[in-house]
Amino acid sequence: MPVDGGFGALLRALRRGRGLTQEMLAEASGSSVRGIREMENGRVRSPQRRTLALLADALDLDAADRRRLLDLARPAAPVPCGGGPAGRMAGPATPDPAIAGCPQAEASEAAVTGRVPEQACGVATGERASGPAGVGSTAPGPAGDAVRCGPSGPPVPAELPAPVPDLTGRTAELAALAHLAAGTSAGPDDAGPRVAVLPGPAGTGKTSLAVTAGHRARAAFPDGQLYVDLTATGSGGGEPGDALAGLLRSLGVPEDRIPAEPGQRGKLFRTLTRDRRLLLVVDAAAGEAQVRPLLPAGPRCLVLVTARQPLAGLAAARVPLGLLEPAAARALIGAIVDARRVAADPAGVDQLAALCGYLPLALRIAGNRLATRPDWPVRHLVDQLRDQRRRLATLTAGDLGVRAAFEVSYRQLCPATAAVFRRASLIPGADFDAELVAAVAGTDHAAALPAVEELVDAGLLSSCGDRYQFHDLVRLFAQERLDADETASQRRAAHDRMLTWLLDRAAGAAATFDPTGRGTATPFAGHRAAAGWLDRESTHWLAALREAARQGRHADVVRVAKALHWYSDVATHRHGWDEIFSLGVTAAQALRSPRDEVVLLNFLGWARYFCRDRHAEALAALDRALDLAGRLDDAREQAWALTYRAAIAVRTGRADAAVPAARRAVALFRQVGYELGAWCATNVQGSALAATGRYAGATELHRAALAFYRGDTGLSGAGALVGQASTTMSLAASLAGLGRLGEAAAEYGHAGVMFRRAGAPFGEALAAYRHGLALSQLGKPAAARGELHRAQRLFAAVASPWWEAQALAALASVAPAGTADARLLRRRALDRCGELDAPEVRGLRARLHRELAE
Q1: CB within 8 A of 338, min separation 6: which ones?
Q2: What pTM was estimated for this model as a whole?
Q3: pLDDT tens, position by position, 365-423
Q4: Is 345 exposed, middle or buried (0-12, 13-18, 19+ CB in 10 A)?
Q5: How wide is the angle at C-alpha 481 spanned by C-alphas 479 and 484, nearest 5°?
Q6: Sign of CA dihedral 686, 687, 692, 696
């Protein structure tokens, strides 16, 4: 746009070319109408560079017009200030009226922009002074010596709250923030500010960390340290106009010259901060939209943002905060409470920290309560906090409260997510997935997943992969809100939905293990997916089964306990099967259903002998089952009771009694046409024969049983695979008895593979143990040690101390004689024997003592 004349003429032409009045340009640029008029008339020929930048932004100039406007404006020059020290002139004699605190500046600069200059107390030469400057000091700048005004200008802002004197357990986080602060002194001039987000749940000490880090780094930011508390500005979740107004006031902009429109406030703030070295702490941000307008423009600025959400939309470094480690929690309590009381009860301090959930806010409140009650022992507060109903109320001290901190996050949730939060507190286990949340909330997975992710972002849940978890104190708060915000009928409906869903899901998962394929429909793709769910959610479905029993939902308890039977064959040592089947027996009795009762009594007897090695208790349950089955004329359940009794007889050295019991069981199964049961009993009969030294007959029976499993039986799934693997184990034992150790070792190896395919770790461990013994007898100690080590690890994983003890003892026997390794293995085996008191355990314990004494 060719224009004759100087700066004023160009400004007028540009304004008119965009259809703006002087009033409209003044409003858009944050200047005054009088200032625009003075510039266009030529009375102000060299306005401050920041004023020019604001005008160019308001006029939306392209690069060429912006350059022309800047070139036609004379560079400003410093002049001595009234009341300040004299300085040298560094440019033309026409003064820049934008000199803070100077009397001659008040008429012209205030008229142009209505604000004081960008330096909190001093002058600007049109370019930024290069070094830090304080009130009444001078600092040389690129355009010459900048003359600082005296104390009549506004002070350098230092707005950070006082730091807490006992910040604890945040060494790594402070180091990360110090590194970011140090990095602001380098980097390109066209970069933006350094930004760090400090995300974390309520009460993790985000503000304390940001403030402490800010105080430690303040020397790097000589132009000021600004602080904005977004919870106090009234800006809520909307545009942070109030926060921007506060920042402009902090930078010296008079109240009547702060633009009314938030966008113009942001432009003015960025212009004022372009060449400054500032630290800004933005506290309690609710979202990215609140933070973006508050970011300064200068590359030498650092912004620390605390938020309960990670603010993923911001380009920023992230320094997340979580709970304190136990040692740091103890140290924080010790820093608040006098050392004498802490030293007098260290165990009580540890309990106090645990009851506070290692949450910094809760720990600080607890410490403050003890500090203000010098006559209280630590245990007194611990006893108060043990009462879950009073814990949140107890964790209040003055204006600090854990409940109030959680309330802020809760009130920001949408109604649907708030309902999910409340109802999720009904879930009994420590962690859970979105499917279970959907069930208890009365919604579907597609709606539950974004809700739980929102709760994670709000700091009300934590996540690990696809699992979610409450902090203990947050769960208590959620339960309070559930009681307060929902009716009794709504709470009961949510609880019942969850209970029914868990019971149905458990029964459906267990159905995949039924070798007959007659189970109920299942939502799982196969037995591995079903086993994974049953293992992950065992805390939940077992709690649901217990609650159903307590509520008198006996039919549900019987249904689920019976469905879980075939799964128990695979997961023999993963769950408390004796408790599960005991609940089933009791429920069947309550229903007056003797046919269900006898089935579950047999399951209970099996669980007690096979999973728990409690043979006497197992026989008691099986005797009841045998008697009840006889009165019901139930040949099938009589046969199962006899099969399990025969297996116990083999285990306890009474194999002679086991043979006729197993034969009778086979006959009863064949009488009712139940082939699967008949071959299970045949396998036990073979083991009984082997135990009495009749290995050839045992081998024949085991081979016949294997032929059944390998034939066209119609059996499928993990249950059938476990049956085949168990029979292969029995065959291997009989072959070993015949001295055919090579064949026996091979069969043990095959059995281990089948157990592994079925997902049966105890069976796999047992196969590895037997395989190791066979390899040892074959004179292959290295291979034997490998298998026995694998067996020991698997037994430990399924919490089977008796079998782990046997594996350790076997490892000791293949270790070089008299070595420290052998002695250590025997001591570990003795430890695993523990308090077990079965005859076979007593025998192993005595042998280990003898070997250690040698």
Answers
A1: 371, 374
A2: 0.72
A3: 999 999 999 889 999 999 999 999 899 999 998 888 999 999 988 998 999 999 999 99
A4: middle
A5: 110
A6: positive
